[in-house]
Amino acid sequence: MKAIGVIRTSRRERLSRDEFEELLRSAGYDVIEIVEQNREEHPRYNIGPGKLKELKALVEELKPDKVIFANRLTPSQAYNLWKELKVEVMDRWQLVLEIFEKRAHSKEAKLQVELASLQYEVPLVKEAIRRIKLGDRAGFKGMGEYQTRQYLKHIRYRMGKIRKELERVRADREVKRKRREELGFILIALAGYTNAGKSTLLNALARENVEARNQMFTTLDTTTRRFKLGRKRVLVTDTVGFIDNLPPFIVEAFHSTLEEIVKADVLLLVLDSSEPWGEIRRKFLASLRVLRELKSLDKPMVVVLNKIDLTSEEDVNDKAERILELSREMAPNVRAVVKTSAKMGLLDDLYCALEGIIPGLPKYRRFRITIPPGSDAGKVLGLLESIGEVLNVSYGEETVVDALVQVGMIKELTKLGVVIEHPLDEAGEAEEPENDE
């Protein structure tokens, strides 16, 4: 389908032309013209009347199937533009939803996309009802007032039904997540801007072959895989990519998917190091805004500068320094900035960063564990290495181990017949039990 794209920028609203064109291509449009304007938003048309006149002439000349705005249009603006241009008008978020519809494969992803689309339609239908009362137009999609009102009721009914189905999916995922924690797994979530290379990184870490393409929003479903980090039990989950100014209705619709970020022990925030610094900065800050909205900025985080094979060492080192400077102000919980090429398997810096972060997670406490004679010390030590970190071992009639252990795994350890003392402080002394009085 042929489309004319429209971008309005201002001091308040900075939009990337390259990203907009990539969105259009990802949705399958043949872009025949891009119209740009730098001005504040016009309340009636979004763009100014003069630029609208120019756009109208282009529509008459080029005969596009749609005119697509990079900006967010109000329902009133969308209607006014349609009335003037006599062609279907879309905005940025309708475009994103179109891409989501093409990429959704699983039942959960399809439900999430449908919910987001219905949430987007509600204000449009309300605007149509308002216009009918003013005698300005027929109802939504050519329906009369009664049909339009009935359609609004149907939308709300369908939204309620989808939310209930997604709640069941969310409950099932919570059961699986708790089981993973009971087995001593560290949960790591991949987050970041769309097309930064998250799926390729998951494949490299887990030695898998999950679909990874050089296009926007390849991943709409969560994918969880196990990978080796020494002897530790680690799971990594790929999540839906972010985009600048991600609207609340998409965040809500994809809540069950994005919850993997909320529940993770460690976040890997992936950026494409081959892009210009201005783009990296914009996408880093956009990702932080989404993480702030998800209330996940307090989690230990590693910024992964991926695709280092596509740029120079000097360039990527400079970008890493700049990210560190930004992080001190915007994301104090960034523990490291590492350089990787998931495609080339260059992951050593990432492994080192994770090995340094994991023992300091809140779920770990220091314990003294006594393995009595006759118990399988090798089995106990192997388990401790997989769910924590052995700090010291004293062999004798009894084997005494000083180790960092996940608190949730204490019951599992006691099944092996070991004796576990109260948690130890940093000096290795037993902490005084809390007095409840």
TrEMBL record:
Its main location: cytoplasm. Residues 186-362 form the Hflx-type G domain. Mg(2+) binds at residues 199, 219. One of its GO terms (molecular function) is ribosome binding. SUPFAM superfamilies: P-loop containing nucleoside triphosphate hydrolases. Keywords: Cytoplasm, GTP-binding, Magnesium, Metal-binding, Nucleotide-binding. It is found in: Cytoplasm. It comes from the Archaea. CDD domains: HflX (cd01878). One of its GO terms (cellular component) is cytoplasm. GTP binds at residues 192-199, 217-221, 238-241, 306-309, 341-343. Monomer. Associates with the 50S ribosomal subunit. GTPase that associates with the 50S ribosomal subunit and may have a role during protein synthesis or ribosome biogenesis. Belongs to the TRAFAC class OBG-HflX-like GTPase superfamily. HflX GTPase family. This is GTPase HflX. It comes from Thermococcus profundus. The gene is hflX.
